[in-house]
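Notes on consecutive records. When two proteins share a document, each keeps its own sequence and its own token line. Never mix them. Below: protein one.
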Amino acid sequence: MNQLSEQSILTALSQIIDPDLKKDIVTLGFIKDLAISGGGVSFRIVLTTPACPVKEAFEEEAKRLVGAIEGVETVRVTMDANVPQGRGVANNVALPGVKNIIAVSSGKGGVGKSTVAVNLAVSLSLDGARVGLMDADVYGPNVPLMLGVGAIQPQVTSRNQLVPLEAHGVKIISMAVLVPPDKPMILRGPMLHGVVRQFLTDVDWGELDYLIVDMPPGTGDVQLSLAQLVPVQGAVLVTTPQAVSLSDVRRALKMFEQVSIPVLGVIENMSYFVPPDMLEKRYDIFGTGGGQQLANEYNIRLLGEIPLGMEVRAGGDLGIPVVIANPESPQAKAFRTVAEEVARQISIEAMKPELVIMSRAR
């Protein structure tokens, strides 16, 4: 007896459980455009991020499960993604086309926060997401240099909005492209609030899955302004392993808690150094285990450890991030993994209201 039917296919696919959302992909509504033609079956699996680390595993398991159904001769699976809007972002008048806003922050300077923000943004773009990068580090706006657009001036639309610059698939705005490079940034609190507001509302960001905001170090006016102006989906904290850095990052974490911005996790940058001519050696230049210690202390995720390497510095100086300039390097691979983890946490935060509704309905 031929058991091939739409219901039999959905029943088979319901055995695939999303490891983060803890529900099967049929209940979550990931299966789209299911079609049966003779013994041929086709459908799309629409995930919550193109950076999903289990994408290939889902595809293989779907083919195996459906292919095992009596009467199925061929299985064609198309992997797709539709990034959900973060909580509160659907009603965001200021940025109607931006689905998720992610703040990249640190308690102190010198931990490579901007480098992390740049490589995180480019990594998400390489995965297929629509990404913007807002350089809110107004006192040290280095993002344009790191992305190779330092001398380009943005154009203005007919609606008097700035057109963000674009490099490596990422839309960019920064104070560095609006003022001469040797002009000092002398700004007080109200002026900083105005800069943040203009970068958000007076820039034609268009449709974005993720807007990465490179925050200035510390816990000052820019952080508070961002929290007041737009719904931020989550914050990512950048630290090095050493105790001095961890002490300052704790203050940043508490600040985000006070303004009700979820902390998605911590990234440990400059975790260790492996000499390129002695790959068997590892030097913990800034100590070891600090990021994991912070994650354990505050029950947050360690999103990844980025090793120290000359490739990262060279890529930043040349305007070609390491994830593009040297994609097979340990640093690039670590950044790509971190981007996947950040995307996962954003999806979990965005899906929380729907998961609560699903639980109540059962």
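Protein two starts on the next line and is unrelated to protein one.
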Amino acid sequence: MKIEPFLTEQFFTDYEFSAPYLLASSDCETMSIAELLTLAGSSLADLGQVTLGYTESQGNPQLRTQITELYESVKADDVVVLTSPVEGIYLAMQSLLEPDDEVIALRPAYDALNNVARHLCREVVPWNLVATDTDWELDFDRLASLIGPQTRMIVVNFPHNPTGFVPTAAELDRLVELAREHDAWLFYDEIYRGLEFDTPIPSAADCYEKSIVLGGLSKTYGLPGLRAGWLVIRDAQLRDELINWKHYTTICPAAPTEFLASQALLVRQQLVDRSKSIIQKNLKLCGDFLGQFPDVFVWRRPRAGSVAFVELNLSKIGFDSATDYCHHLARQHGIVLLPGRCLGSEDRFVRFGLGRQSFETSLKAYSNVVSATISATG
């Protein structure tokens, strides 16, 4: 069976490593291995002592214990260390879904959260975030109406990519109540957890016994090159089934990655504070820029995370779709914005990434393009 094209990664393949102005990156500013080790009080010599043999399939016990410190009630046995975060999506859905199952998936969202399930089961039903004039909101009445006897799993990601939406604690409780009422699994992608601008909400791992929680170091901690991630699964039978699937994919995590991930978790708060400082600066720059062109952009300020989802008034910039516009920006101006269509949204949205130190320079280049476009169209 073929799987749908991975539109987000295909788009970045075309432009991410060639265009000079990246405005759509979802990760936060990274650092070198030497910088990370110095921050953690370690050294390249320590990394050099890591042996390159097989590691434990479930993950290094010490690393799994460190990961539990991010949660309230999670034990080391509940954690499965991954070879990359996206592997967790694939393994969880392979382990749980059967051909007659239905999945309800929040949209817009990272492609894999919808496409892997659609590849494996009968139907993936979209649960769309609702855009208001200035924000986004969850429609729980709609979710309740979508859940049926074949619903096996509800898939969400918060803080949300691409809108930056984060539910309140009461809304998280409502989500868990609906999942529990219908005995549905809750796949909860928390890869941006820790980047809340206000009071953080609890992890779903601490709220619901049938949650499968995805975490990792790529976004919040600015270490995507490590490919370090994990799943929290409190159900022992499912965890064993998932590890069996893991034996058919990557078998075990990479030893150097586990060592570096452990070092990163030693200084996790410093990494989070660094990321949030960059985001807050760029968030203001982005809001000020979009405010200069109110006829072109609709700004729904994110509540968390390192991304924002901006609506375009396409008639003002002379394009029929955000996809065409983004290809034009990348090819003609070297500016990369991600079209919302890649994430399952209407083709009038684009994603901005707020986590890079180069954001200000890239935004200035884009501002010049927008100003020239407005002047040319009158």
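For the record: The chain has 14 helices and 15 strands.
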